[in-house]
Specification:
3 domains; alpha+beta; signal; about 20% strand; Beta-galactosidase, Chain A, domain 5; about 600 residues; Heparinase
């Protein structure tokens, strides 16, 4: 066995993994062909093995969950089983054929089986007897079973029997069970493909075909229906699994399209743009690291230098060890093709302007400057999973200096943040526009009156509240409208912004800018609750040696609370995030021009 010291491992981690820059011609490469090399990436494999062994050591130092305590989620346990299975089966692992690991695997398999219902499912938090959550668990368990199948160690036989029992029981749930969300269909189908590769049964493939017959939706922007970074990674992985195990290469065309889009959504440091997601990640900070195996597989199978570039970008990211090296050895053992070296390409185009028309999102990169413009909320804006409702319409980065978001709010009937009705691109200018409307109501006509006043409980026509007022049968009057237009023009990374808000006079307007925590502020005035106000002139927002300049400012009021609309504030909710907040304020009719550079 070839061991390397911790010092050598750290040196390996510091090696340059940067890919060179790639051209636009490469981005258009849609061909599928075998990678030109089959040489094993021994450096990566050593890192995977060391990290997997380190995690095994941590697992063995922890007490297994008391069998008397019922688990509410089984993914962590399933992940542990996969990690343990990889080390006990890898001939160069220091836990190869370890009796202690075998014992822990047996105990873990017992806990897993105890948590499985008679229909083959397990629970996951609030999802009771959940087929899709069982499918996520199967991803780990089938990987474990795959590597253990090649391990001839006799004392592993009871573990293999237990895992087979769990998998086949779960297979019955996969054949008959339902789903919640679009991505669940493909997670379940991938689970069935994995089960079928271990224990072939025509029913598994028939169920996969039943789901696939619905069609996998991907639009011209390269987005699946949930338009989510988290779930795009899930779907890409599921489609790759089906393509690989069922010999259905046509599924990879969708993966390739989504991965190209994901490249444009990736910041230089690996952060992923999620502002347009329709799921929970629209308000989360996530990285592109979760796409690593997908990019690696497609780099090997297509030879596309763009994918190779993304592999190398992710390999140097801070969370690569935690999310890939610690958990992925079992994947590389189950699919040896992943072990191939990734060819380094010549050029990737890192300066671009890309407008995703269906998503109403623009991505612009000029050197160290990265810009995101967004105007694609689902209308009407509702707070629900599956709906796009993030009010951030501009994000701006210059190296380490980060404007996390810009928002605009109005006190107009407390209807909250500006949410553009799409983006119109005219020449070099992006135009965002929204009209809000609020109503008053006339008395009911005689034919709708009730002497007891017990009218229908209904929603007001402007959607702001509910009451027993029979709004449908009332005439709206004194209707007020407010129109907001934001025009944004980009020139070599600098932005010129023109705000115009018209409607009833003397309405408070607030432009909210949130910068990354730790940002140093110069030129703005510190007010109450740690808020900064740019009263005039320009401000400089700095992080390390990088700085963003913006201005001029204006400050006509300092009322910057309750910006979120009554839909949130009625329940004491807020969309305000951590960070350094800088405000520009005024009253309607509001006219203000400013620059960001």
């Amino acid at each position: 066995m070839n061991k390397i010291s911790r010092g050598e491992f750290l040196k390996l981690g510091s090696l340059s993994l940067l890919g060179a820059l790639v051209s636009d011609a490469v981005l258009a490469n849609d061909g599928f062909f075998s990678a030109p090399t089959t040489k094993v990436d021994s450096l990566l494999m050593k890192k995977l093995l060391l990290s997997n062994d380190a995690k095994v050591e941590q697992l063995l130092q922890k007490e297994l969950t008391d069998s008397a305590i019922r688990l509410s989620s089984f993914r962590s346990l399933a992940n542990s089983i996969a990690v343990l299975s990889a080390s006990v089966s890898h001939s160069e692992s220091r836990f190869y054929k370890s009796k202690i690991v075998v014992e822990r695997l047996n105990q873990s398999a017992d806990v897993l089986l105890k948590g499985q219902y008679s229909d083959g499912t397990v629970d996951a938090g609030g999802n009771r007897q959940s087929p899709p959550d069982t499918a996520f668990v199967l991803e780990y368990i089938c990987s474990a079973a795959t590597v253990l199948r090649e391990n001839k160690q006799k004392d592993l036989d009871p573990v293999k029997v237990k895992l087979k029992k769990f998998i086949q029981n779960a297979g019955e749930a996969m054949i008959t069970g339902g789903v919640h969300t679009p991505n669940h269909r493909w997670v379940v189908s991938a689970a069935l493909a994995n089960i079928n590769s271990l224990y072939p049964d025509v029913r598994y493939v028939q169920r996969i075909d039943q789901w696939l017959a619905e069609g996998v939706y991907i639009n011209q922007d390269g987005h699946y229906s949930e338009r989510s970074g988290i779930y795009s990674a899930v779907i890409d992985k599921a489609l790759i699994t089906m393509a690989r195990l069922l010999n259905r290469p046509e599924l990879l065309k969708m993966v390739q399209k989504n991965l190209i889009t994901t490249y444009y959504y990736t910041e230089p440091n690996g952060d992923l743009v999620t502002v347009d997601s329709k799921r929970q990640d629209q308000f989360m900070d996530i990285t592109v690291t979760k796409f690593y195996l997908q990019y690696r597989y497609m780099a090997i199978h297509t030879g596309n230098p763009l994918f190779a570039y993304m592999v190398k970008l992710i390999e140097k990211s801070p969370d690569f060890d935690k999310y890939i090296l610690q958990d992925s050895l079992v994947e590389f053992m189950g699919d040896p093709e992943l072990q191939q070296q990734i060819p380094v390409s010549s050029n990737v185009e890192n300066d671009f302007e890309k407008f995703f028309v269906l998503s109403n999102l623009a991505r612009i990169r000029r050197g160290k400057t990265s810009i995101t413009l967004f105007g694609g909320n689902d209308k009407p804006v509702l707070i629900a999973s599956g709906r796009s409702s993030n009010p951030n319409f501009l994000m701006y980065r210059k190296g380490d200096a980060i404007l996390k978001y810009m928002r605009l709010s109005s006190s107009f009937f407390r209807m909250g943040y500006f949410s553009s009705d799409g983006i119109e691109k005219v020449g070099n200018k992006y135009i965002l526009k929204e009209t809000k409307e609020a109503d008053y109501y006339q008395p009911l006509a005689p034919e709708f009156r009730k002497t007891d006043g017990d009218y229908q409980l209904s929603e007001s026509k402007d959607g702001r509240f509910w009451n027993k007022m029979d709004f449908d049968n009332r005439v709206a009057s004194n209707i007020k409208t407010q129109t907001t237009v934001v025009e944004i023009e980009e020139n070599n990374g600098a932005l010129s912004l023109d705000f115009k808000v018209d409607g009833p006079p003397n309405v408070e307007i607030t432009v909210e800018m949130c910068f990354k925590e730790g940002t140093q502020v110069a030129g703005a005035t510190l007010g109450e609750k740690g808020n900064y106000f740019l009263k005039s002139g320009t401000a400089q927002l700095s992080m390390g040696t990088d700085a963003i300049q913006l201005g001029p400012g204006i400050c006509e009021h300092q009322n910057v609370s309750n910006l979120d609309s009554e839909e949130y504030t009625y329940h004491q909710g807020t969309l305000r995030t951590d960070g350094v907040h800088v405000y520009i304020t005024g009253f309607t009719p509001f006219r203000h021009k400013m620059t960001i550079s």
